[in-house]
Specification:
By secondary structure, the chain is an alpha+beta fold. The chain contains twelve helices and 17 strands. Strands 1, 8, 9, 10, 11, 12, 13, 14, 15, 16 and 17 form an eleven-stranded mixed beta sheet that branches. The protein has a four-stranded antiparallel beta sheet with strand order 4-5-7-6, with helices on one face. A hairpin with a 5-residue loop joins strand 4 and strand 5 (about 105-110).
Length: about 500
């Protein structure tokens, strides 16, 4: 019996060894086949995306360059943090961070990642990048006005010390001013060396090609991303139909798009704004006149004139920003009340200027709407020089239609040092207190109160927040929807 048990045990052991060996061998074979297939598949994964506005330079460090920033930020260049699709701060080259009580010390842990030339990213690279930005006064250097010093307890640990709390610091650390540059390797004229998931491999007359950074901490799905530039939305639609591109942004309409493409309508951070001249030389310096104008303009008609790409707002804070509130019910369209208010004035002829062609249909809509109330509006389209001379330097017009600065720009409405002349010391005091609050909830509440006061002062009629229209081939996931006019991150795309 014991002998049989021994034989049975011996046989089972041999059988298990044989089976295990086969499993290991088959696993190795399968892994080899899978690894080889993955490598081949990865090298062939390419996506081509249609855009408008080809950058004339890839330098987004020494000059304000939104067209370059749009394709390079988060893709070729990254900072400690990034901004996600909801305009929230998320980990970037830092895997996480800690904030001290009182908001005067931030500690970041860097990931194990590398620049595209293979050099490991260390804390000193971050320190050098920010210090150089500030010393050279490159765009965004004032973002770090409250930073007193940096320290590095270890090569992959960075500490930022502040002289006063700044609840917006993390948001700045996710923006273009905070990209991490390898010391002495930043090429202002040629192809950039960054620490993002991609590297610029070539730039053609109407295209920019990115290829995967093999040293990045996480491998993106597509090994090659081509940004192809077109002169119009119609040309992009044609390219989508022909299969030249698999995705497109900057569309003005989805008309004629095949059903094999999915349309995305996301938010821009920019607001189309009708600014009133608050200087004494203009009737618009009278609060009652400004109120009358706001009552007489139907914002929905303005959106329709813009092709339906807009979300009605009535305040200076865009959606997705801290402090945003829906103020539309406080400043509704009311033609009857508006007529009664404007009839108080003898002069009913006003001037309206604009520069950006995107708002031309909106200017015509405003003229038409005010004409129904017996108001004459003379419209002027300005050149760049005329804008600088007649608006920025000496506000000569009663109203100016322009596209506001975007996210986190509420402070421009409180400073009093603006070309439209409006000043609100009370709003500015609340705003200044909010931006040095150590508590984010208190900061957000301060933004809300500031926005309410500015809206009540009515230096402008914030008509609508712009929307960005894109189309992507069915099956592609990870599509960025919001803020794609500011930054178009592609490392999350799959399919």
């Amino acid at each position: 019996m014991k002998k049989r048990e021994a034989r049975t045990g011996d046989y089972s052991t041999k059988k298990w060894i044989t089976f295990s060996s086969l499993v290991v061998i088959l696993s190795l074979i399968c892994w080899g086949i899978w690894a080889g297939a993955e490598k081949i598949s990865d090298s062939g994964r390419q996506i081509t995306i249609g855009l408008q506005g080809m950058p004339t330079s890839l330098d987004m460090r020494t000059t304000w360059n939104p067209n370059a920033q749009r394709v390079l930020l988060q893709n070729v260049y990254q900072g400690l943090l990034i901004r996600n699709d909801q305009n929230e701060v998320a980990p970037g080259l830092a895997s996480g961070w800690n904030e001290s009580q009182g908001g005067l010390l931030y500690t970041f842990q860097l990931r194990k990642t590398y620049f595209s030339d293979g050099k490991r990213v260390v804390a000193q690279d971050v320190i050098w990048s920010i210090k150089t930005l500030v010393s050279e006064k490159y765009p965004g250097y004032l973002d770090f006005a409250g930073v007193s010093s940096f320290s590095s307890p270890g090569p992959y640990t960075l500490q930022i010390h502040l002289s006063r709390p700044n609840p917006e610091l993390l948001w700045y650390l996710a923006g273009p001013s905070s990209i991490i540059i390898e010391p002495n390797k930043y090429n202002y004229q040629g192809l950039p060396v960054g620490a993002g998931p991609y590297v610029v491999s070539s730039q053609g007359p109407q295209s920019i090609t990115l290829t995967r950074n093999p040293y990045y901490w996480s491998k993106p799905y597509y090994s090659t991303v081509v940004f192809k530039y077109f002169s119009s939305s119609a040309d992009e639609i044609s390219a989508l139909k022909d299969g030249q591109i698999q995705g497109a942004c900057d569309l003005t309409s989805s008309s004629g798009l095949p059903t094999s493409y999915k349309v995305y309508k996301g938010l821009s951070s920019k607001i189309v704004t009708l600014v009133f001249n608050d200087h004494p030389s203009s009737l618009m310096s009278d609060l009652k006149a400004r109120q009358a104008m706001r009552l007489l303009i139907d914002k929905n008609q303005a959106v329709s004139a813009a092709g339906g790409l807009g979300m009605v707002v009535a305040g200076p804070v865009p959606m997705l920003d801290p402090g945003y509130q829906d103020l539309t019910s406080q400043f509704p369209f009311n033609q009857k009340e508006g007529k009664e208010s404007i009839n108080y004035y003898y002069n009913k002829t006003f001037t309206l200027a604009y520069r950006n062609s995107l708002v031309e249909p909106v200017a015509e809509s405003i003229k038409s709407q005010l004409a129904a109330a017996g108001i004459t509006v003379n419209i002027y389209k300005l050149t760049a020089d005329q804008w600088n001379n007649d608006v920025a330097s000496s506000m000569k017009y009663d109203m100016v239609l322009y596209i506001s600065g975007g996210s986190h720009t509420l402070g421009t409405w409180t400073s009093g040092d603006t070309w439209w002349g409006y000043d609100s010391p009370q709003a500015d005091q609340i705003y200044q207190q909010a931006i040095i609050s150590p508590d984010y909830g208190t900061y957000t509440e301060g933004m809300e109160k500031t926005a309410q006061l500015i809206a009540q002062g009515q230096p402008a009629d914030w008509l609508y927040q712009m929307q960005v229209l894109g189309a992507w081939k069915d099956g592609i996931s990870g599509v960025p929807e919001n803020l794609t006019d500011y930054c178009l991150p592609v490392f999350g795309l799959k399919g």
